[in-house]
Amino acid sequence: MPHALWTVWVLGTVISLFKEGAPDQASPLTCDPTGVCDGHSRSLISIPSGLTATVTSLDLSNNKIAYVSNSDLQMCVNLRALRLGSNSIDMIEEDSFFFLGSLEHLDLSYNYLANLSASWFRPLTSLNVLNLLGNPYKTLGKTPLFSHLTKLQILKVGHSYLFTEIQEKDFVGLTFLKELEIDASNLQKYAPRSLKVIQNISHLILHVKQPTFLMKISEDLFSSLGHLELRDTHLDNFHFSKISTNETKTIKKFTFRNVKITDEGFNEMVKLLNYVSEILDVEFDSCTLNGIGDFDITVMDTNKDISKIETLTIRRLNIPNFYSFYDLSSLYSLTGTVKRITIESSKVFLVPCSLSQHLKSLEYLDLSGNLIVENSLTNAACEYAWPSLQTLILRQNHLRSLEKTGEVLLTLKNLTNLDISKNNFHPISKTCQWPERMKYLNLSNTRIQSLTKCIPQTLEVLDVSNNSLSSFSLTMPQLRELYISGNKLKTLPDASSLPMLLVMRISRNTINTFSKEQLDSFKKLKTLEAGSNSFICSCEFLSFTQEQQALAQVLVDWPGNYLCDSPSHVRGQRVQDTHLSVSECHRVAVVSAVCCALFLLILLAGVLCHRFHGLWYMKMMWAWLQAKRKPRRAPPRDLCYDAFVSYSEQDSHWVENLMVQELEHFDPPFKLCLHKRDFVPGKWIIDNIIDSIEKSHKTIFVLSENFVKSEWCKYELDFSHFRLFDENNDAAILVLLEPLERKAIPQRFCKLRKIMNTKTYLEWPANEAQQEGFWLNLRTAIKS
Hints:
This protein has about 775 residues and is α/β, with parallel strands linked by helices. Belongs to the Toll-like receptor family.
């Protein structure tokens, strides 16, 4: 029984965990306010429920959806884009798209749809784009699929292995397509006129491995196609057969992408291109020539109509047997009217001088990503080479000397645009020679660290982006556009050196700031891109950038790329949104105000000190601190005096003529300490007072109005008071020389007031008969 309970508990736990971990079919969708919902790559196994009419775009690609039912999308009446590509869909119910009358883009590519149904597409009257590539169907069905799609512009169908037949009825109803892509790599049957039903196709992308049906397809398309693109085709065994037709040929461009061809196949291809007499543009992309250039000269000479081609583009051409390759003289007759040639990333290291001389109409030449060096360029740009050339692009080759490059190109009298970016020209010479008509020069990504007069002053456009320049000091009176981003400049160039400048892009440098005066100095500047710099957001810079409304019309990357680098507390904030405190923006005024306030405070403190004797208290505090540092009281054997007499100088007559006579001439005599007589000369008076009090048995204070007016008497009174309280003795003797009311004693003599309230004092009698008793009492007090 316990084992059964344990089993039930385990099963319940597993079930509960499974329920908790089951994915919510609606939660993986993320939708923005416009109704664009993203659910791609979420491992969904079905279309999420709860979709409403607010959804305008739904991306469910790259999931595991296997089935589309009638109810999944019935509420999405405003849906314009539905992407279901790269799922596992093998079944779509007949009316699944019935409510999608607004749908413009439908992607069902790379699923498991073995049979296509026309009922799916019948309600989609607004459809512009339909992608059915990569599904395992052999044909497009028994009935026309697209006859109701009158607005369709882009159609993609086929499968690289399983799609084997193109039927005559497949494209019925379609009259105009911007792009048609057919993956028929394993095509085994083509019904004549299957593609002819489409009256106009701008661009056809055709995947055919073997050219068996190429001529039949071409025959149907010659009068309706603008651009034919062959992909993944082997033209090794291609044979051109002339077609008898009076129809006007409309093909203007032919593209061969990932095509393999031999010398014989190339001869046949030239025949095909010659037949399509209106062709102007030929492109080879990622193609392989399995030959050695042994082309049939007779074929080349007899097919002169191909010379109408104006644009030739070759990218990533592979010639495995290049080491055995013939010269290109057999092709010279085909190059007479070519105006634009691009040979990119094809390991070209030499252009024969004779070929360059035959290219008399060439205006544009792009040799990017090849192996050109100065010596081979010398051979290519020989005398009478490229006489009409205006634009030359040598980007990402192996050029090293800017001086030598300019010298080699002097033969190109009509050259105006030169792109030699992504080479290595560090360092550059001080002077160079260039073609006289040069207007555009691209030196970006060339590792240069400084600019010299090697740069031609006739330029109208100069690009020196992504180098290591720390300054720009060239004078270029005709320059209209300057691209200098990605360097190390700390300030804008001098405007007086660039009087005609219209466009300047100087982002990604180390510029800290620029001012209104600097921008105004560029009289004709219309466009400035200066973002992504290390801006110091000073008050002046913020005021200038935030208050100038017209600045946004000049700064093309404002405000997103303008961020503060300092001060640190605003780092990373947009310049437009940054605000500094008053203390940061008006520092001089704040410092002045603080100084004024401090001066007034000091002045007020001075007045208060004078009014309430603050200076006196400070002096007293210093003296007190000095006194506290000394030993508390000298031992009895160190006492030198019976009494220290503290008196005012105005009372010195009484002290010196009466008190001294009565006490020092008494038997036994008393030894008194008087400041006039016993203070050590040169010693600080405070130290004299403290020492005298410490070395005296008693301290006699001769009190009078003169006493309370004396600061030194106050010190002596205080130091004696320290002894009274710190040592708990009775060292002070008060002698009242004249009547003294407490009100007459200043407030700062607080200790005198306290002592007079707590100690008995001797009064000097005016009656001579009583004076003898006064002296007796005084001598008694001293001895006590």
